[in-house]
Amino acid sequence: MRVLVTGAGGQLGRDLVIAFSGDVAPGGRRRALLGPEGPGPGVEVVGLSHDALGVEHRTEVLQAVDEIRPDVIVHAAAWTAVDACEQAPDQAFRVNALGTRHVAEAAADAGAHLVYVSTDYVFDGTATRPYVEWDAPSPRSVYGRSKLGGELECPPDATVVRTAWVCGASGTNMVKTALRLATEPGPLRFVDDQRGSPTFTADLAAAIVTLALDRRPGVHHVTNQGDASWYELVRAVLQAAGHDPGRVEPIATSDLDPPRPAPRPANSVLDNAALRLGGLPLLPDWHDGLARLLAVLS
């Protein structure tokens, strides 16, 4: 079996390539999702970064997939700069929505199963409970609308994986930001009125491997278990890394200076109902994933 991963230069894409290769991603651990032997023998993975394949270019996508002839395409490429998307909506839709159309077209031509990585931003964040896969999306930001556009481009038998608050050993994320700020003087102020499920790419990649190789259709919410505010997450990072968590101060989103261009969902907690009801193992608690990631970053 041959698997193509788009966006292989990103923090999730890198760990997807590792997981499909049968190795354990940095900060990961062998779990029941993959089984003791990983994805199994005979799985070949081809990872293409944005430099190698810009999904917004239809001809490039069709040619690349025709040459590689994958059995599965995991489409992790996206423009995820939330505030930048707000300032450049055409580019956001060109990459996240139209780019997914191109990948879906190429997958259909090749007879490949499509896995699309989506986001909690497809919801408006006003619910008072975790969102299940069957809740109606209502994105508030350009980024969220463009990623929902990508979902709508997927065929009915595709696997759509929504995740949230992603952190990994590579790339930029909140764990790395917190560690950097911990070395600087003064208080650290983070919002306490946005909640989500911190999710670690090593665990997320392992779950995506299972869903992809099983060709599980439909929407799946995949996050580490438990939830936190950004304030609580940063405190946990500092405490686990041996810094003073008392330096972290809670603020409201409305107190951010300057205010962020893109609105954030107040509630980004995703209920992994499709995994749970389908009898698939859930990802570990986010504190567990954080400890493993910090061990790698240290």
Helix and strand topology:
Layout: E1 2-6, H1 11-20, E2 44-48, H2 58-68, E3 72-75, H3 82-87, H4 89-110, E4 113-119, H5 142-153, E5 159-163, E6 166-167, H6 174-181, E7 188-191, E8 195-196, E9 199-200, H7 201-214, E10 218-221, E11 228-229, H8 230-240, E12 248-251, H9 273-277, H10 286-297
Parallel strand pairs: 1-2, 1-3, 3-4, 4-5, 5-10, 6-9, 7-12
Antiparallel strand pairs: 8-11
Helix pairs in contact: 1-7, 2-4, 4-5, 6-8
Can you walk me through this structure?
This protein has ten helices and twelve strands. With 298 residues, the chain is of the alpha/beta class. It has one domain: 3-Layer(aba) Sandwich (Rossmann fold). The protein has a six-stranded parallel β-sheet with strand order 2-1-3-4-5-10, sandwiched between helices. A two-stranded parallel sheet has the order 6-9. A two-stranded parallel sheet has the order 7-12. Helix 1 (11-20) links the parallel strand 1 and strand 2. The longest helix is centred in the middle third of the chain and has 22 residues, at 89-110. The relative contact order is 0.17.
